[in-house]
Amino acid sequence: MISHQKQERLTTWPKQRTTWAWALGTFFSAGLLRPGPGTYGSIAAVLLWFGTGHAFHPAPLAMAVGTGVAALAATLIGIPAATIVARESGREDPGHVVIDEVAGQLVALIAIPCDWRHAAVGLLLFRLFDIFKPPPIRQLERLPEGTGIMLDDVMAGVFALICGQILLRWL
User: Fold this and answer.
1) Which positions, given as ranges, span the membrane (predicted)?
2) CB of 53 within 8 A of CB of 63?
3) Distances, alpha carbon 7 to alpha carbons 4, 14, 28, 89, 145, in Å
4) Is the peptide bond preceding residue 60 cis, with omega within 30 degrees of 0?
């Protein structure tokens, strides 16, 4: 289900690299870890969310709003960063770009309690939707450059958020 291009490993650095775009696009090098850089990006987002929740102990509404703002910021910054890294890598959707997984994972975590069980469910649901890409998620990949790279994962996060909320209400 994962495209061959997404599986490619970055073996040589491009001659020209835009530092800020590579730092954010790879989410501070999480995207360079193997195997499964997307999973590492998602785990990094969960750890950041979990650590923030436990360090600051925000009220549930404040945590939800903060997570939503972080997801929006990652998306808005991720689109140009992903575009630049993809161009400099010479790849349409390079696997080492994981800011899209970070944004999508944060969307999946917006309205769940900040504990490890809920975090694990949010991570699992997001990764399933990100890997299998049911419609209309797959169609969003066709959008140009960084927009397509980012928005399919954001939509996977929306699907995971909805399913997570259903599970939270029923269980």
Assistant:
1) 21-50, 62-85
2) yes
3) 5, 18, 19, 14, 18
4) no
Residue 98 contacts residue 26 (beta carbons within 8 Å): yes
**Cβ-contact 67, 49 below 8 angstroms:** yes
Cα–Cα nearest to 25, from 108, 97, 125: 97
The band of 129, judged by pLDDT with boundaries at 50, 70 and 90, is: very high
Asked if 17 and 88 count as a contact pair (C-beta separation under 8 A), the reply is yes
Query: pLDDT confidence of 46, banded at 50, 70, 90?
Result: very high
Domain boundaries along the sequence of the chain: 14-170
The DSSP output letter for 34 is: S
pTM reported for the whole predicted model? 0.91
Nearest to residue 79, comparing CAs of 67, 96, 95, 97? Answer: 97
pLDDT digits (tens, 9 = 90+) for 73-105: 999 999 999 999 999 999 999 999 999 999 999
**Contacts of residue 87, Cβ cutoff 8 Å, sequence gap at least 6:** 145
Rounded CA separation 44/170 (Å)? 28
Which candidate, 119, 146, 136, 155, places its Cα nearest to that of 42? Answer: 119
Q: Which two tokens stand for residue 52?
A: 């923030």
